[in-house]
Amino acid sequence: MYRFLLTRQWLITLLIALLLIPTTIKLGFWQLHRHEARVARNELIAKALTAQPEPFDSLSPTAGFAVPSDLTWRAVTAAGQYDPAHEFVVRKRTDSNGTIGYFVVTPLKLSDGKGTVLVNRGWVASGDTATEYPPVPAAPSGEVTVTGRMRADETVKGSGGFVKDRAGLPDRQFNLINTEQQAKETGVPLLGGYLELTGTTPAPAAQPALIPDPDHSDIGPHMAYAIQWWLFTSMIPVGVWILIRREAKDRAGQQAEPEAAAETVPA
Q1: Residues of the chain with pLDDT under 50
Q2: What number of H helices and E strands is found in the chain?
Q3: From CA 103, how far away is CA 125, in angstroms rounded?
Q4: Fewer CB atoms inside 10 Å of the end CB: C or N, the chain?
């Protein structure tokens, strides 16, 4: 009755089904791992944002220091004087509404003499053209104390290839916030990583729009996707069995028709 399963068409069908089952199981676990990574990231950010601020140079003590993932978003503080002569902007950055503009990054020379920290002071709108330096509120003069979030240096690889580090950009415009790049550009020794500003003491009269806290409540759709893949896995054998039963029924019906016709022929 089921000898048709040995035909070329059905052998290919069964082989595809057998290959799909482990593939969809693996895809489900892939989405599960993405869900777990998202939850772990949210917990890390929430913990970092509520921690007591630590001196930036105690977490990033040297130039070239690579900020690890467990220090990213850590609340940090730094005291010193801004160096507006080496300020620059970072192109193609958005505000909380998705409007494209620039991040304003100004070096802060630390009062303790341990180096200089890049401070992302926030977002400003684009100028009239993409080649001119945008209007930027001046950095506060004199001694200031800043608080913010520790961030790792940006790289092309870290952006997944979405950010290209192109040469030939207008003066003081860059695509990345990268201390090694800026140290080569300006000759100023910079501690690794940078500070994403959340507050300044004394408060300035005007400043770029501060970057909001990262979203650490949304867990994304990955768990739902994992369940969908596993449901699809369970449907594969059921679907194959339904097709087999239908094929067997159709073949049985086709075989019965000539036999019934032969029985009705008069002798």
Answers
A1: none
A2: 4, 8
A3: 9
A4: C
Q: Is 162 helix (H, G, I), strand (E, B) or coil?
A: coil
Amino acid at position 29, single letter:
F
Return the sign of the alpha-carbon dihedral for residues 175, 176, 177, 182: negative
Per the DSSP assignment, residues forming a β-bridge with 21 are none
Contacts (Cβ under 8 Å, ≥6 apart) of 126? 100, 101, 102, 134
* Rg (the chain; Cα; Å): 31
Report the relative pairing of strands 75-82 and 54-55 from DSSP bridges: parallel
Unique residue bearing structure tokens 């978003």: 73
**Helix boundaries (H) for 126-221:** 179-186
Question: In angstroms, rounded to a whole number, what is the distance separating the alpha carbons of residues 182 and 190?
Answer: 8
**Total-model pTM:** 0.74
Q: Which residues contact 204 (CB under 8 A, 6 or more apart)?
A: 137, 139, 140
Tokens of 199: 């507050």
List phi, psi (to 5°) of 60.
-120, 90
